[in-house]
Structure formats: structure tokens, C-alpha cells
């Protein structure tokens, strides 16, 4: 999957995460989180694994976390990736399980 435009998913509400994707080189993750010391490595791992499962190779991700669970992180990354790749139908949600 190729990211062709900047896209966003998620909110800044408690227990959510805002994900912004844009074209980049490799997988670059910029994370801001109130729980980064405790869970930063896990959040980055979930973001990276979700992108890899979707086949996204060249992307810059800006993630602003407000205590989201892994399943929320996966859903937001997938939604942002599909929007950034301009895929508007035939979503493969099974890939993020």
C-alpha cells in the first residue's frame, strides 16, 4: 500500500490516539504520549506491525496518544493508512487481527 496524501484518524480524547500518516522513506514513527515511559515501546510496536501487515513501507507516522488500547491503535493506524492511500472501498480489516 502506497501513501499518496497526508491523512488523519482518531481524536485527542482520553483513551484514544490520533494518527497522522504521510509519505516518507521507510517506517518513521513520531510518538507523543502521556504514558510513553510505560508503554511507548508497545505503542510503536503495534503501529509498526499494523503498517507491515497492511503492506505500507514508506510512511511517516505522527501519533499523539491519550492512553489508547492496542486494538484502538490498530484501528486508527489502519483507517489513516487507507485514507492516505485513497482506498475508499473493499477494506481488508481482517489483516489487523
TrEMBL record:
Q: What is its main location?
A: cytoplasm
Keyword field contains rRNA processing: no
- Protein's cellular compartments: Cytoplasm
Q: Which residues carry this modification: O-(phosphoribosyl dephospho-coenzyme A)serine?
A: 14
| GO MF terms held by the record | lyase activity
Q: Which InterPro entries match?
A: CitD (IPR006495), Mal_deCO2ase/Cit_lyase_ACP (IPR023439)
- What would be one Gene Ontology cellular-component term for the protein? cytoplasm
Q: NCBIfam families from the entry?
A: citD, PRK13253.1
- Primary role: Covalent carrier of the coenzyme of citrate lyase.
Q: How does it assemble?
A: Oligomer with a subunit composition of (alpha,beta,gamma)6.
Q: What is this protein called?
A: Citrate lyase acyl carrier protein
Q: Which organism is it from?
A: Anaeromonas frigoriresistens
Amino acid at each position: 500500500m502506497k501513501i499518496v496524501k497526508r491523512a488523519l484518524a482518531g481524536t485527542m480524547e482520553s483513551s484514544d490516539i490520533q494518527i497522522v500518516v504521510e509519505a516518507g522513506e521507510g517506517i518513521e514513527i513520531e510518538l507523543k504520549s502521556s504514558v510513553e515511559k510505560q508503554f511507548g515501546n508497545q505503542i510503536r510496536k503495534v503501529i509498526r506491525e499494523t503498517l507491515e501487515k497492511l503492506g505500507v513501507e514508506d510512511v511517516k507516522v505522527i501519533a499523539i496518544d491519550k492512553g489508547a488500547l492496542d486494538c484502538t491503535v490498530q484501528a486508527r493506524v489502519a483507517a489513516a493508512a487507507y485514507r492516505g492511500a485513497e482506498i475508499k472501498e473493499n477494506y481488508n480489516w481482517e489483516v489487523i487481527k
